Each structure stands twice: as C-alpha cells, then as structure tokens.
Amino acid sequence: MLARIPDGTACETDQHPRIDSAATVIARRSVTCGQECAALPCTLAQIRAAQRATVTDPRITLWSELAVIAHLTGWTMPKPAAEFSRDLRAMTVRLRDCTFSAAVGDAVASRAPAFSSRVSPDSLAAHVVAAMRESVTTGRWLCERDEPRYLAPAYQWAIVHDALKLAYRGTGQGRHPQSADWERQYGQVIPGDTCARQFGTVNRWYDRDQQNRDALTAIAWGTRTRTAIEQAVGTTRSDEQWNRRLTDLLEAFGNPRWPHNYLRRRAPVHQSAGVGA
Q1: What pLDDT does residue 17 have?
Q2: How far is C-alpha 161 from the chain's CA centre?
Q3: 223 touches 213 (CB < 8 A)
Q4: What are the angstrom distances between the C-alpha of 235 and each of 49, 87, 109, 245, 256?
C-alpha cells in the first residue's frame, strides 16, 4: 500500500518554532500525578516501573484498594505500620507518586460503575492519593473525620445512620444536633422530632440502598474477574487459606479490624459502616 504524504521539510527547519521538550505538548497522565510528573511528564519506562512496583510489593496494591473502599463506605482509611512506612519512604518520590497514582487509579476505575452517579471518580482518586502521600511524607492525617461526599450510593447514609443509632441508644433527646448540617449536605429533610424517629427513617433509606447486591460486591472487590485484592493476597477469596493470608498481609497496617471483617471469606453482608473501626 502506498500513501501520498506532503513534504514536511519546511516544518522542521529553523523558520518554524521547535519543540525542545515533550512537556510542551504532553500533559499529566492523571489528576493523581505528583508534582514531579506535573513538571516533567513520565516516560513509558517510568510508568511501567510504577506498575511493576504494585506487583512486587502487594502491600501497595492492598493499601490503595482499602483506601478507596474506606472512602466509599465510611470506614477509616488504614495507615501503614512502621516497617511498611519505612519501605515507602525509601522509594524515590517520583516512583512512589507514580505507584500510588497507578494503584489508586485502578482501584477507582474498577469500582466506578457502582458510585459514579454520586461521586466523581477523579475527585475520589485525587483525594485518596493525596491522603496516602501525606501519610507517608509527614505522618499527618489529611482526611476529615466524616467525608460524606465520597460515600457510594449504597452507603450514602452510613455515617448519618451510625450517628443516629448511637444517639438514640444513648441519652440523646429531640432531634440530632447535626440534623441541619446533614440536611444541607444531602439536600434532603430528615423527618422526626427525636433521634429515634430520625433513625427509623434513615434506617429505611439505608436498607433500601443496601438491596443492590451487585453494587455492594463491586464496591468491595471491583468489577474485574481476578480482583486486585485477590492478586495482592495471592489467592482467591474462595480459598480456605484466604482469611489467614489476608490477616498476614494486613499486618502491614497494624491489622485493622474492619478490612478483615469486610473481606473475610464470604460474600459481603448487610452491615453498617463506621469511622474509627
């Protein structure tokens, strides 16, 4: 096959502007890219190195997956324990940033069908990566105590549900003091003149949202056939060794309770999310 192509010699002479760097025509790959990537775009070799890092160190993949799940469900994002933190700080800044970007990007993309009607995938990914970077570089906690804007539709009432449940079982009388803030955030009135009656209403809404089993499964595991969590743990969740191997890998985060309970060997059950677990 022959193709007729115009002579482009004139475009490559000093009579026309020259491009000295790919950075002038190539933008960042993702909103999750780090500062070094913004100044000078990654090469394919650097991107591939970041992808390899998620394979050679499954703790990075698991942390990225858990961090995304935590924001979508209302749990607390795990933080690396001392040994894992040391290993992350030993990486070059660019490699670490690219690795976080790749792993979190995959975690968000595989769950997007289950939450994108309420939460922006780009906003969620950018926030999660920023929180992970901050945790490693300064040890500070970037996330707010409650972040309802990142809750998936199936969990959108989880934080309010838990707060009202705690209040009406305690000594709370009348409407919950945060009612006005919640109604402003959600754009929806929460009826009831007591915490107990408000809880009854929100509990019905929460139960309704939790009926979508496909969405719950997608949020927990993603939509890929061989999930990233299973690849990180090194076996499938149907394996009899799943619980033990998951627990071993969770030691990199001080073995927090909620990931083990949420991902243990069975299908996710109807359960209330909550901070601080």
Answers
A1: 54
A2: 22
A3: no
A4: 24, 24, 22, 8, 20
Residue 276's pLDDT is 39
- How far is residue 147 CA from its own chain's centroid? 12
Q: What is the 3-state secondary structure (H, E, C) of the chain?
A: CCCCCCCCHHHHCCCCCCCCCHHHCCCCCCCCCCHHHHHCCCCHHHHHHHHHHHHHCHHHHHHHHHHHHHHHHCCCCCCCCHHHHHHHHHCCHHHHHHHHHHHHHHHHHCCHHHCCCCCCHHHHHHHHHHHHHHHHHCCCCCCCCCCHHHCCHHHCCHHHHHHHHHHHHCCCCCCCCCHHHHHHHHCCCCCCCCHHHHHHHHHHHHHHHCCCHHHHHHHHHCCCCCCHHHHHHCCCCCCCCHHHHHHHHHHHHCCCHHHHHHHCCCCCCCCCCCCCC
* Nearest Cα to Cα of residue 73 among 145, 159, 143, 144: 159
Report pTM. 0.82
- 137 backbone φψ class: left, alpha, beta (φ>0; ψ -120 to 50): alpha
Q: What are phi and psi of 95, to 5 degrees?
A: -65, -45
pLDDT of residue 271: 47
End-to-end Cα distance, the chain:
65
Cα torsion through 257, 263, 269, 270, rounded to 10: 50
Rounded distance, CA 175 to CA 172, Å? 8
CA distance 68 to 112: 11
Which of the residues in the chain have pLDDT under 70? Answer: 11-30, 34, 36-40, 170-172, 265-277
In Å, how far from its chain's centre is CA 258?
A: 15
Structure tokens at 33: 């890219």
Predicted confidence at residue 20, as pLDDT, reads: 52
